[in-house]
Amino acid sequence: MSDLIQDFVDYLTYERGASPHTIAAYRRDLEIWGETCGVEPVPEALRAIDLRSARRQAMQLMERGDSPRTVHRRLSSLRTFFTYLLKQEVVESDPFAAVQLPKMERSLPPFVDADTLVSRIDRLYGDAETAEREEDRDHLFLIAFVTDLLFQTGMRSAEVRSLQLTDIDRPGQRLRVIGKRNKERHIPFGPLLDQKIALYLSYRDRRTRPEETHFLTTERGTPVSASQLYSYVREALEPLSGYSRKSPHVLRHSFATALLNDGAGLMSVKELLGHEEVSTTSIYAHTTFEELQRMYRAHPRAHKPHKE
User: Fold this and answer.
1) Does residue 156 have an active-site annotation?
2) Can you give the residue range of the structural domain that contains 43?
3) Does residue 294 carry a catalytic annotation?
C-alpha cells in the first residue's frame, strides 16, 4: 500500500473513527481504481488527473461489469480520498467532484414482518424450556435471546458484539451503544426484554470467565464473533419460508419497519438506529400490503355495504 493511501487509512481510522469494515472498503476501492485505470497513487500522478481523465477513469470502472451501486461507492471513495488530498495540499483540485455518479435503483431493505418474528421468537423460547438436554436448552435459549435482542433494539451486528456489561442499565431500562464513528446513543427497552436479559445473565454467568466484560458470549463463554452471530440468527430464522436473507441486519430492518408501521416518527427511528441523515432512515418508510389494507379500512367508505 502506498504511503498516501496509508496516511488516508490512518485519517479514516483515528480522525473519522471509521469502522474496520468501512476502512477495508475504501482501501479495496482505491486498489481496484489503481489497477483498473493504471493510476500510481503518488503526488505527481494524482496532480495530473483532470476532469477529462477523471471521467475516462469513471467509464473504465463502469466497464468492469460491476453493479451501479458498486461503481457509485467506488467513485464516492475517490471523492473522499481527493477531499483528504486537498486538505493535505497534495493536489490543487478534486477532478472527481464534477463526475456524475451512476444512478441507482433504490431497493427496499429486506425485513420480516413483526407478527412472524414474534411468533418465531416465542416458539424458540418455548422449545428451550421443554428441551430435555441441558445443552439443547442453552443453545435454543441463546439463539432466541440473540434474535430477540436484535429485533427489539435494532442494533448493528458490530454494536451488539461490542456491547459491554457496563452498557446495560437495567434499572433505567436502556442500552448505551457506540455506533459508527464512535457516536454514542441510548436505546430504551421494556420489561419483557429486561426479563430476558436477567435470564440471559444467569445463563452467561455459568459459562463465562469472571474477567470477561463482553455482554454477548458464545456457549463456551467467549465473545461472539460476526460469523457466530450470523449463524445464530440464520438458525433462528431458517424455518421461515419466503425470506431469502436471514442475517442480523435483516432484524435491524425489521425493527425499523415495525416501528414505522406502528406509527413511530421518522426522526425518532433515526435516533434509535443511529443514522446521521434522515434520508437513510426514510428507506424503511415502506409498508406491507396488509398494513395498507389496515389503514384503508379506517376510511368511512371502506366498510361492507348495508343489506337492502
Assistant:
1) yes
2) 3-98
3) no
